[in-house]
Amino acid sequence: MFKLVPILLAFAALTHADADCEYDCEPIYTIQSDPFNLVLISEDPSLDGKTLSACHAGAAVFTLCPTLSEEGAQYPVILTHNTTDTAITNTFGTQGILSWTIPYDPYPIDLSVLLQPQDIVPLSIAQLAMTYSGDGSLSFDNNDILNFQNPITWGAEKPGMGEWTGYYRWWVCFTYYGTGYVRQTLVWGTGVGKPGKFGAFFFFGRC
């Protein structure tokens, strides 16, 4: 039985040279970090310390799976955190997008992390897709832990704009994605607490 696995995502810097933006550079998020891997921090010993890999889920679409969790997840995905010179910076970090360049020759393909919401269940599946926007509120705090920032006071009777706050609602669970990709993958809980058990036509499983 697969149980709900709460996750923190840590920044793990790589030692090789900075990635250069040579092909169709993203026009907004032009300040690029050194390349890194994402590492899971979990109470589940089978996942704690594992990196994330890019798992094929469609035409130039990938989900983020624990490395070695399946045949197509052999190598950790190498990401960068891209920001702007006007990006919001606070105690939760500097807001930006997570990007990955598929090293196709001669034309690499730039992908960014999006949180793809599911209509029936309270979560979004983290995916890498061809987009120049991505989810631009992703940041790393002082401990290099990935969070998602939002300024809306959803806890109020009448929500409004408040201070930007970082949230840590990462989970790993089995998902059904696209045309039949069933795998253990990274998701974002869209509500407070555990996403819970759910079943739907395009998504099923228990986190």
Please characterize this protein's 3D structure.
This protein has strands at 5-13, 31-32, 36-41, 52-58, 61-66, 80-83, 89-90, 93-94, 97-102, 109-117, 123-129, 138-140, 146-152, 161-167, 170-177, 181-189, 197-199, 204-206. The chain is mainly β. It has one domain (5-206). A hairpin with a 2-residue loop joins strand 4 (52-58) and strand 5.
Low-confidence parts lasting 5 or more residues at pLDDT below 50? 1-5, 15-27, 197-207
Helical content stands at: under 10%
Radius of gyration: 17 Å
End-to-end separation in angstroms reads: 10 Å
Number of helices: 0
Quick description:
This protein is mainly β. The protein is 0% helix and 48% strand. The N terminus and C terminus are likely disordered.
Topology readout:
Blueprint: E1 5-13, E2 31-32, E3 36-41, E4 52-58, E5 61-66, E6 80-83, E7 89-90, E8 93-94, E9 97-102, E10 109-117, E11 123-129, E12 138-140, E13 146-152, E14 161-167, E15 170-177, E16 181-189, E17 197-199, E18 204-206
Antiparallel strand pairs: 1-3, 1-15, 2-6, 4-5, 5-11, 6-9, 7-8, 9-10, 10-11, 11-16, 12-13, 13-14, 15-16, 17-18
What labels describe this entry?
disordered N terminus; 11-stranded antiparallel β-sheet; disordered C terminus; 3-stranded antiparallel β-sheet; 18 strands; 48% strand; single chain; mainly beta; 207 residues; globular
